[in-house]
Specification:
This protein is an alpha/beta fold and 431 residues long. It is built from 14 helices and 24 strands. It folds into 2 domains: 2-19 and 234-429, UDP-n-acetylglucosamine1-carboxyvinyl-transferase, Chain; 22-230, Enolpyruvate transferase domain (UDP-n-acetylglucosamine1-carboxyvinyl-transferase, Chain), CATH 3.65.10. Bound molecules: uridine-diphosphate-2(N-acetylglucosaminyl) butyric acid (EPU).
Amino acid sequence: MDVFKVSGNGPLNGTIEVGGAKNAALPILAATLLTDETVVLKNVPDLSDMRFMIEILQHVGAETVQPEPGTWEITAKKITHVAPYELVRKMRASVCLLGPLVARMRRAEVSIPGGCVIGPRPIDLHIKGLQKLNCKVDISNGYVHVDASAIKGGPIFLGGRSGSTVTGTANIVMAAVLAPGSTRLECAACEPEVVDLCNLLVKMGAKIDGIGSPELIITGVEKLHGCEHTVIADRIEAGTFIVAAAITRGDVTVKGIAPKLLSAFLDKLEEAGLPMELGEDSIRVLPYEGSLKPVDVITLPHPGYPTDLQAQLGALMTQTDGISIITERIYPNRFMHVPELQRMGADIAMEGPSAIIKGASKLSGAPVMASDLRASAALILAAFAATGDTWIQRIYHLDRGYERFEQKLTAIGAKIERLSEKDMPKELFEE
Ligand code: EPU
């Protein structure tokens, strides 16, 4: 297995480019099943999660061509309605095949994705939404079986305990675009990735009003057609690079990201005192004297502070002057990185779903274990601020969601090497 060896190397400097958004590209790839015509997708990041999704599309019968890196031409002329466990288990997001299969095939059998380290990932709201669309849903043998022969639009309130659901909204919108009648979807997720999906669907001929708001009105059409679409930039990748610049007191321009996609995150950094220059399509982080200030953050659905930038901000807060409180409302267990940061010298106490982070910690390199995608990023960011070498194991989590991570950061001065577990010094494992 690959590991990263990361060494603190002072301020990062230069320009770094953001790639296509993983969480936009995944449902968008699934949406290509909604038509028998070719959909051309550009700016699709090269990540293991994309490869899983392409494999599933191929399995259900789509033809996939990659004419050049980042571009996929997908034609789903004849497809089946079954997404089996051996493919779905590799990636939770494969649940967003449900909507397109239901819409196009009027039935679906999709394996229920397995557990997840960041906490329970139920799909009850996806099921409720389908039932409100007059589908019969049955769960047996680890599969969701949907009979959508009588599908029709209707009013749906899709909110749960934590508010809206991102892939749940994607699924129900995709199911509704080809359903007869009109669907009023309330408490729809407003994340930019859902907006991107809706924009693609409109290009394909769907009728959706209220895009970007919590109330979507979808008028079913008979058929969708092919189109070309460029996936939006990855706001979470951009946010991760911004923290990399901030934690090293660097001068870094993050290019290819509209600041308005990151308003809640940038607002917190501004409160912390990080000097930044916002362009139309770029964010420049400037070096600063003294320390950043602590912040109090609660993760919430968009436009609130994103859970996917919670761990990274936590790493930065270990270096501020004071006590920060980070409360996780979307996935209360999403703090697996905390014990690893503690091993590096961070002073963090957990109080229920809140991390109380005492700043000004002197971090030092240690062998640490990545537990999920964003936790991996947080450990690397902390390693930039640490003395000595940090060895990060299980970086396959990182490879799911960050494209050419070490190459991009090395180009602006970071010291990250991808090595094999067997290259780790033996003394790290001695008592
Ligand atoms: N929820 C339910 N029932 C459901 C669905 C969700 O109770 O049927 C709850 C969840 O347990 C959670 C909350 O609703 O507490 C929000 O979950 P959501 O459905 O919005 O999450 P998701 O669609 O499964 C996407 C991203 C995640 C990101 C979340 C929240 C994709 C592929 N994944 O997950 O991304 O954290 O939205 O913004 O889009 C990541 O990229 O690292 C990642 C985990």
